[in-house]
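[Q] Does anyone have a clean structure-token version of this?
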Amino acid sequence: MKKIIQLLYLLSAVALFSACSDDNQGEVISQDLAYQLDANYVFVDIPEKFPFDPSNILYLEGRTVLRLNAKYDGSKTTITEGTEFTFNVKLKKPLDQDVKVRLKKDLDLLEGHTLAEFPDEAFELHDAIITAGSREGAIALDITKPDVLNTMPGYVLPLRLEFVDAISGVRISEQSYSVLIEMNLKLEKDNIAPSNDEIDGEYFNNNVIFESGKTTNIACLNDGNVSGATWYPGGNDYLTMTFAEPTRILGVRIHTVTGKYKLESMDVSVDEGNGFISYGRFVRNTDGVIYMKFKEPVDIRALRFDKMRAIGDQTRPDIYEITFIK
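[A] Here you go.
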């Protein structure tokens, strides 16, 4: 028979299900979205009896993009932010008892995927408890060993939602969707010593190419004059120093002015042969000549300074001379 159904009620009526049984974990269902929705009203054929009573459904909520930040020092990957992620799981109607649910790895879901399987040792999954009277909970996924995540372009982790203990009267949605985990990997090494002690070694700045978007007075940086003209970078200016060949460097000496325009801090990156790796932000802790020492001497192809600041986070610090120690 034909009936006119308001859209508000159609949202429930359209949830017709074709069910298959799972004796251990409950019945798995899917939606039949064959009906055409109208903005206000819709004519549909209503079966005299649904195949079952769609009174309660367990489902994951929405599509998700998970992001984490990590750093790589050339040998080890460390997650700096975002080690734990959550998947929201919901019931259509609350129950009068606690319900424990989980996501379980299911390799049968991998059909058609070409990415590598997410390694078991790289993550842990924690069950969620939807407490009595509540409709939702959260399943936690922890990234425990990021070092093993080194395959490009990435991995796939097939997960299936299920009850830990079977619950009667509740069915599990078989709707599937992808959760994308994006890892922002920063090449970074902790290799700047905090001291400003003078460094023993051979000082040189010949056969080094100094390059920057700020070219005014850049030639003074290796002219041998530690109190003459100065180079003064702006807020977004960089300075790249390239060696004629890879050279083992102990540290850097920087002559700067005294007063409010003396160099106070800067971001430091080093090319050890595979592109620039961040060494972090150098902050001077004393007056006078700057000695920036590397904790471990490294073979360097190039060195880069960014975000150079004077006292009070001012731009345009004045620098006389930059010398390298090997």
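[Q] Thanks! Anything notable?
[A] DSSP finds one helix and 25 strands in the chain.
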